[in-house]
Amino acid sequence: MRSERAARRLYQLLYPFLLIWYAFVVAGLVAVVTTWPQRPIGSLDEIPWWSHAIAFAVVAATWAPVSAHLDRGVHQLAFGQRDNAYEVAGHVSRQLLPSVAAALAGTMSLPHVEIEAGGRVVTSYGKAPEGAPITTIPLVYQNHAVGTLRVSARRRRDRLSATDVRLLEDLARQVAITLHAAGLSAAVQQSREQLVTAREEERRRIRRDLHDGLAPTLASLGLRLGVLQRAIATDPAAATEMAAELRTDVRQATADIRRLVYELRPPMLDEFGLADALRNLRPVDGLSRTVSAPDPMPALPAAVEVALYRIAAEALHNAARHAGATRCTVEVAAGAGDVVLTVTDDGRGLPVDYLAGVGHRSMRERSTELGGTLDIGAGPSGGTRVVARFPR
Amino acid sequence: MGRMTRSTALKVAAALSVVVAIIGIVAFDLPNLVLGAEESRDPFAIVLGSFTSDVVALVAAYGAWRLQKWGAVLLIAVNSFWIIQAVGSLLFDAGAGAMAFASVMLVHHVAVISLCLWRERVVSAV
């Protein structure tokens, strides 16, 4: 608390001091320039008044960036990096495991400590003496093995004592928690990167569609409209023919826009809601469909709605195309904390040597990226059942 | 900001300040102090002020090198004072040598203050 107060006081003193100091320095430097022909000057009185006016203008013009820069710098100096909480968290987790390994080695006088997770060495401290036996202790967090702790004995052919091993097993629980936390931090970082990548990919796709598809079509339409305008007076028959062609092109452009809009978010979701959008999904050849959903449908996040819609569409497509199904049941059930989509068909079911294809992977990605789960398996009376579960 | 870590920035600032403080002590303070108040080439108050600021700069540089907050704050304070000296020298001193020295010092002091306020960014987690 005291250090917090001291940091605040330091910030409150240093920031205005540096701002005032900045103004004085600018005034001084401007004075150096404006009195250059007479230099060296004898006293400050020889500095012309307009020098201060210029200095004032310079300070006013640069005030915003300089004060912001000084503010950030002084804030960090006074308070550390606490204004960048996520960065600090990442930094801490990166430093944590090496510190834990070093602390273990230091407190137990172990020459070598190594923490392994996911088949790779996450951090390692010291060097094992030649011939010293290595003790391996599994790192378990909530019944899940998250890694392995390996420590070497202190000397050659000298195993660790039972007390040492018991203590290490107790400490391993703390190490497992740390390792789990570091893994979570890495997962969050990876997830953020994936989000950014996905957003950029989507932007690129939209840009490409607009640039390569719609833009040339519209430009061509503009040119041909000009030709049409001139042809109306001179050659009405050709103008009529051209107008018909233009109409076809406009229809094509409209269809392109619809496709683009559909890919962003199926318009039916906004027009009809999820239940009716599922009922109005593009008919699949030879597949009759029964849709049941709560009425009224509870409000769902937009991303979950889209995911449910796309997964249902993919499941129906697979049922008709790969499973040879004739009937399909689509059921949406909303519980207190989740929403479940179940698509069941009466087709051949999954083959024994079934390998997930692009469609299944896409469904799984859609569910996992929103914190949901996807189960694909045999239906209760044959066929295939796809169950997607999302938190609400 | 840049890729340099805050600890590196503070160590660079400390090293730069030590160099300037030692130059100040050896080239200006000690000769004048040896001559005494009566025979000093420059006003003795200025000599004493300069010597004090150089010593404070050395102490501050030690603190900054050890990544102590007080060291960075003290370095900012000393270099702010030195900037005023440099600007004064640019205004009042004659001769190209004095001008050049004051200009270099001005850049040095601004650099040291910037390094003390260095804003470190941690780019990636884990």
Automatic annotation (TrEMBL), chain A:
<dbReference type="Pfam" id="PF02518">
    <property type="entry name" value="HATPase_c"/>
</dbReference>
<dbReference type="InterPro" id="IPR011712">
    <property type="entry name" value="Sig_transdc_His_kin_sub3_dim/P"/>
</dbReference>
<feature type="transmembrane region" description="Helical">
    <location>
        <begin position="12"/>
        <end position="37"/>
    </location>
</feature>
<dbReference type="InterPro" id="IPR029016">
    <property type="entry name" value="GAF-like_dom_sf"/>
</dbReference>
<protein>
    <recommendedName>
        <fullName>histidine kinase</fullName>
        <ecNumber>2.7.13.3</ecNumber>
    </recommendedName>
</protein>
<keyword id="KW-0808">Transferase</keyword>
<keyword id="KW-0418">Kinase</keyword>
<keyword id="KW-1133">Transmembrane helix</keyword>
<keyword id="KW-0472">Membrane</keyword>
<keyword id="KW-0812">Transmembrane</keyword>
<feature type="domain" description="Histidine kinase/HSP90-like ATPase">
    <location>
        <begin position="303"/>
        <end position="392"/>
    </location>
</feature>
<dbReference type="InterPro" id="IPR050482">
    <property type="entry name" value="Sensor_HK_TwoCompSys"/>
</dbReference>
<keyword id="KW-0902">Two-component regulatory system</keyword>
<keyword id="KW-0067">ATP-binding</keyword>
<keyword id="KW-0597">Phosphoprotein</keyword>
<dbReference type="Pfam" id="PF07730">
    <property type="entry name" value="HisKA_3"/>
</dbReference>
<dbReference type="InterPro" id="IPR003594">
    <property type="entry name" value="HATPase_dom"/>
</dbReference>
<dbReference type="GO" id="GO:0016301">
    <property type="term" value="F:kinase activity"/>
</dbReference>
<dbReference type="InterPro" id="IPR036890">
    <property type="entry name" value="HATPase_C_sf"/>
</dbReference>
<keyword id="KW-0547">Nucleotide-binding</keyword>
